[in-house]
Amino acid sequence: MRRLIIGVGLIVAVVLLSALVVWFLERPPEPSSGTTQLAAPSGTKAVPAPASSPPDDGNWTMPAKDYAATRFSALRQITPANVGALRPAFTFSTGSKEGFEAAPLVVGPTMYVVGPWPTKVFAFDLTRPKAPPKWVYDPKPAPPARGRACCGPVNRGASYSNGRLFLNLLDNHTVAVDAASGREIWRTKLDDIDTGATMTMAPLVAEGKVFVGNSGGEMGVRGWLAALDAGSGRLLWKGYTTGPDADVRIGREYRPPYPKDSGRDLGVKSWPPEAWKIGGGTVWGWISYDPELRLIYYGTSNPGPWNADQREGDNKFTSGVFARDVDTGMVRWFYQSTPHDLFDHDDINEILLLDMPAANGARVPAIVRPGRNGFIYVQDRRTGRVLSATPYVHINSYKGVDLKTGKLITVPEKHPVQKRVVRNICPGPAGAKDWNPSAFSPITGLLYVPTLNICMDMGVVNANYVAGTPFVGADVKMYAGPGGHRGAFIAWDPVARRKVFEIKEDLPLWSPVLATAGGVVFYGTLDGWFKAIDGKTGRLLWRFRTESGIIGQPISYRGPDDRQYIAVPSGVGGWAGGLVSEAMDERDPTGALGFSNVTRDLNERTPKGGTVYVFALPR
Amino acid sequence: MSSPCRDRLIALALVAALCGCDREERSTRGKPLPETIPASAGTADSRPLDPRAAAYERNAAAIAQGQQLFTWMNCVGCHSHGGGGMGPPLMDDKWRYGGRIDQIAASIMEGRPRGMPAWRGRLTEQQMWQLAAYVRSLSGQVRKDAVSARADEVSNTPPLTQTRREPIKAEPPSP
């Protein structure tokens, strides 16, 4: 009997011990002792990575405001109490009425605006009344490029560094322009419009290099990110999204966070033969930079074609996030948010560098990404490990993310199949949100996210690859999700991982967001309202009807007269506004890759436009 | 139950059942619009119609072939099912380069400066004319007994037999 008891005891002990070992092994890695200790206003809030988010000097030199991509202005003259008096200080018509997405930049006494197609750049003298133009730069991009751009001939803006403006042209050139004179300094060709490639993203400038990527995920274009020498425009390196490890720049320092992303030449092996050459994974969104880790972070687009049946496998390295060494371009880690993407869920959205509170006042250096697939990802930015992935919109096509394996769990009933329409897939192809970035306020600790409430019916057919033409193979029809509203502005607490407030918007929300230290948050709507809301409560404080739908990036700056200004471009277009800007016919529900159907009323709601509005409080 | 009473009940039930049917709403064609092929519609091209046009225009077989090619050659990726996208819509009344079948065929063969690729060398001349014949049908220019009553694609776009005929207007090419 005693032997039996000892035996049973021993077995129990062994089981307990192994459970303990398994539990220890499966725990996420403890943050190392090197984490930044911060005297934050509150230890329980997320804060922007200090090295990526220096103190505000009142300028706005890059579209995302800083390397941490906060889109937060520390200016505080405009407050919930006085914003009601905000009125236009001056406006400027660019003379072009196309989708207007670029962020205006302000450096000292000058504002720089990249206008809508054909992408003229204007410099305005802010020291003089009504800010007259100083110079205009006309880059004359090749006209056929505009017919290759999936979602309007848009440009997401320039970046300023060291007396120069850097921007991309739709015909695949990166140019450097002298900020004082508007003279072109260099122009480098990086891709070919005959393959369907274009360039729409805003460059990021860091460590004397200009980082740029291509667009064309709907045309079977092979994606890449390039580093150019800021001085000469010389190409330093190009890291492809697909293909052999040498092309992707994967070497010895590659440390994938999960075994699923580990292996040799996955950019070839996770595709049917040769399919990686026309497999998309373009780099048309946002790049962030951590100067301490010396890593740049950016996401890759959907694989091509949309019809997933034609590309069996994980389709690496599309629809995921790269961390690359800023100097060599070698990949440190990669995480695939949406392997074998079924629904055009690119992963190019903004990547905020935030330090998240942890136990004992320590902080975890993280990236926070409101993804197109409907999850807000919080990841350790040293390793890529997913700390959390939380749904922030209505999702029925994914079950969740397995934090142990890093895998996205799909819903088999929602997989598109040939010869049949699969209905009610949420979110639609534009995702929970598209390229238009969120803003983060360290004062409220909240992330302000412009979201879409759009579902779709999708039917797939085999697409033939014909260079320079769309490589899609899907018929899509989008419509409003549950509730009937097509957009929602949400405030998200990234620590508690919950929505704090939500403002329903009738039209799809395609506007970027600006947060300010005064406590006012700004965004616009597709029918041209520019809105100011209370960052704590979401209460609407002020609104102004601009000439056209707003899809452009609002900014805030300190003028030469020491007053705080707010600037926003107005000009409907892009994927969501194409019905108006490209004069499409709303009777076809599949127009604009399915977007027409969910914006049928847009022609009655807004005309075309192309004007910058600059607002200030009365003196 | 007497038989007239039963009959009445059955009739009532039938009426009720019919009322329950949620009939799909379809917009029917109104008054037929005048034929708009001649150059009088302001297409600014007074040249006589290409004699090859007669073989394709209103030819059911050519239109059906064109419909298939429209998907196969990725036309649908830019122009959707007529509503437009990367390329202009083809179901409305605006034609940048003319809406006559020979003008459409020329746009397909030679390409256009704002992004339309030239298909000469990638398709046969016959295929390009077939495509032009199908494109004409998107704005309802073709007789309804010549077009296909169902779409090739799996999505639910309205069939071509319900397409409204649009007058053809020339749109000055914008830069």
Q: Give the CA-CA distance, first to last residue of chain B.
A: 80 Å
How many separate helices of chain B? 6
CATH C-level label of chain B: Mainly Alpha
Beta-strand proportion of chain A: 25-35%
Biggest sheet strand order of chain B reads: 1-2
Low-confidence stretches of chain A: 19-41
Total domain modules of chain B: 1
Biggest β-sheet of chain B, characterized?
2 strands, parallel
Query: What is the average of the pLDDT values of chain A?
Result: 94
Task: Using the coordinates shown, work out and report the CATH topology of chain B.
Answer: Cytochrome Bc1 Complex, Chain D, domain 2
Helix content of chain A: under 10%
Instruction: Using the CA coordinates, give the radius of gyration of chain B.
Output: 21 Å
> Which consecutive residue ranges of chain B, at least 5 long each, have pLDDT under 50?
29-43
Describe the protein.
The complex is a heterodimer of chains A (619) and B (175). Chain A has a five-stranded antiparallel beta sheet, with no helix packed on it. In chain A, strands 2-33-34-35-36 form a five-stranded mixed beta sheet, with no helix packed on it. Chain A has a four-stranded antiparallel beta sheet with strand order 3-39-38-37, with no helix packed on it. Chain A is globular, with a radius of gyration of 24 Å. The termini of chain A are far apart. Chain A is mainly beta. Chain A is built from five helices and 39 strands. The model of chain A is unreliable at 19-41 (pLDDT under 50). Chain A is 7% helix and 33% strand. Chain B is mainly alpha-helical and 175 residues long. Chain B is elongated. Chain B starts with a helix and ends in a 5-residue tail after the last strand. Chain B has a single domain (36-170), classed as Orthogonal Bundle (Cytochrome Bc1 Complex, Chain D, domain 2). Helix content of chain B is 37%, strand content 2%. In chain B, strands 1-2 form a two-stranded parallel ribbon. The longest helix of chain B has 18 residues, at 3-20. Chain B has six helices and two strands. Classes of the chains: A mainly beta (619), B mainly alpha (175). At the A-B interface, strand 29 and strand 30 of A face helix 4 of B.
